[in-house]
Structure formats: C-alpha cells, structure tokens
Amino acid sequence: MKHAETTLITLALEKILRENTDPDHYILMPQIQAMLEEEGIKADRRTIYKSFENMRSYGMEIVYRQRYGYYMEHRFSEAEALFLLESIRQSPSISEAESRRLEETVLSSMSFEQRKLLSSKANVSAKAPNDTLEVTELLLRAIGRNSIVSFRYFDHDASGKIRYRRSRKPYTLLPCAVVSEGVRFYCVFYSDAHKGFSNYRIDKMDQVTITEETAGAPAFSLENHLRSSFQMYTGEPATVTARFDQSMGQHVFDRFGSGVIITKSDDEGFTASIPTAITPTLISWILNFEDQITVLNPPELVDSLNRLADNVIRKYKKEPREGELK
Q1: Looking at 225, 243, 275, which one is the last position of a domain?
Q2: Which end of the chain is more exposed for a tag (fewer CB within 10 A), N or C?
Q3: C-alpha–C-alpha distance, residues 120 and 114, integer Å
C-alpha cells in the first residue's frame, strides 16, 4: 500500500474515533470498516491495526476492550471541556463571534455524544463589542518585537454608548505583558512620558495597530507589578495591616494568596499584614465587609477611610423634622 493511502486511512480513522467514540461509546471493527467505506476507503483489519499503531506512536491513546471494541481518549475529559466552555460562555471579554468559534474548537475535539451533553447555551454573559482575541494576538506579537502600539481607549456611559478618553486621541505605549484579573484581560503598558506602568482592559481598546517604532524593553517584573496593583488598579506599594473577623479568613487568602502574614489570632479574629497597593478598588473591597475589617496601618489608608466615612455621613445626614429633637 502506498504511503499516501496509509496516511489517508490514518487521518480518516482519527476522525471516526474522535467523533464516534469516548469512554462510554465504543466502536467495533466491522463498524470502523463500514465507516471507512462511506468515505470511499477500503481497508482490511491488518491495515487498520497498523494505522492504530502509528497513531499510538504519535501520542494518540487508542483503547481496546474485548467484546466492546475501540475508543479514543480525547484531548479533554468531559469535565475539562465543560470548564473551558463555561469560561468561554461567561467571559465578557470576548465577542459573540469569538465565543462561538472557541466553543466550536473545544466541541470539535469531543465525540458527537459528548457534544450533545456539552452544547447547553444557558447563562451566557453579555459579550465584548470588539475582537478581543485578535487584539490580544496583536499585543503578544508587539511584546515579542518590543514594538510601540497605538490604540484608542473607551468607557461606556450610563446609556451604554461608547465614550472615548482623551477626545479620541490615540495612546502610543509599549506593551509589556498580558494578564487576567477575574473574567477580564488586561495589557500592562509602559509609558516613556510618565516613566511608569499602567493596566488597560483589552476589551476597551480599539483601532489597535503595531507601529514601526520600537523601544528598548524597560526593566519589568510582572510579579512586582501585580503586587503594586489591586484588581488591576495601580497604586503605591504598601503593606496593609488590619484586624479581621474570624469569618474573613477564606476571603483574605482567596484575594491576596500566600503573601498574607498572620501576626495574631484568637477566637474573635486575626491580625494580618498584606503586601498590596493602596487603590480605590482596595478601599472598595475593605468597605464591602463593613465592620468585619479594621485597618490599623498605614496611616494614609486609615485617613482615606475616615475622610470617606465623613463624606458619606455629611451627604446622607438627615435634618430633623419639625418637632423632632436635634
């Protein structure tokens, strides 16, 4: 048999096993031969066995069980595929078209029966208006080349309309890294004018182009940069010491990871020192837990919280009604 014919048989077998088998669905040799014939390919058992050997030698796991037949292990288990698909469906960072394409990429690696199980469209999140994957690929190429990138950056107003920052004037910055925070993806850019790094949400960038201008890569540590950020808002690095209610343990470690240092713990709570950055999002996170957190240091964070509390009290303080005591 010619090499081209052997290759064709092997490719056809991979497709048949991938689409029609999984750990719960086997296929017998006569069925395999019949499916090959439907593709216009005639192959005896010996040729098919040889093709299976070739497939195994290239890392494909072809499993045989007596009386059941054959199946092929897929790239993803059903649980792995479900996690990937739900991440795609719930991500607001990618467009509807990108979401469909990525879903199809994952599903195409599964059997037909597995696809039926995994094809639910429930609870799909609102999607980004731009092609985030295309923009991300472009940014990664620019990072590899140390190329300056030009882009416009926008927000949405109360009516949902796009409003460009800087009156539509493009940003021209050097991309250094692509990172994720929650369900969003960000690019860390370096500004030569400001001699510093800032984070920009990729789904809020458009008209992104790689310029012909290059720049020497600045000294950059992603780990150090993320320490000076909180939920992708950059600020001055600081060690925050606070007293936490005992129920806050999981929240603290989920949010800040292994960098948390517990200095005191008792039945009522614990005191922890956390390397982070003082940003509006950190303050918002603290306030979200009301009296379950008491910040002890640094003084500037305590002052910020006190000013915020005073402003809220002034704004919502009710004047006594007529006849009520002040």
Answers
A1: 225
A2: C
A3: 11
Clarify whether residues 160 and 203 are in a common domain.
yes
The tokens for 247 are 């129920």
pLDDT, tens digit, for every residue of 30-68?
Answer: 999 999 999 999 999 999 999 999 999 999 999 999 999
pLDDT single digits (tens) 59-87: 999 999 999 999 999 999 888 898 888 88
From the number of C-beta atoms within 10 Å of its C-beta (0-12, 13-18, 19+), residue 57 rates as exposed
138 and 195: one domain? yes
Residue 58 sits in the same domain as residue 83: no
Q: Which domain holds residue 22?
A: 3-72
DSSP H or E stretch at residue 108:
none
* Among candidate residues 192, 225, 258, the one where a domain is terminated: 225
Q: Which residues are bridge partners to 237 per DSSP? A: 277
Task: Report how far residue 318's alpha carbon sits from residue 195's, in angstroms, rounded to the nearest whole number.
Answer: 47
If we measure between CA atoms, which residue out of 1, 174, 183, 158 comes closest to residue 91? Answer: 183
Q: Which amino acid belongs to residue 141? A: R
Phi, psi dihedral angles at 279 (to 5 degrees): -135, 165
| Residue 212 forms part of a structural domain | yes
Q: Which CATH number goes with the domain that contains 270?
A: 3.30.70
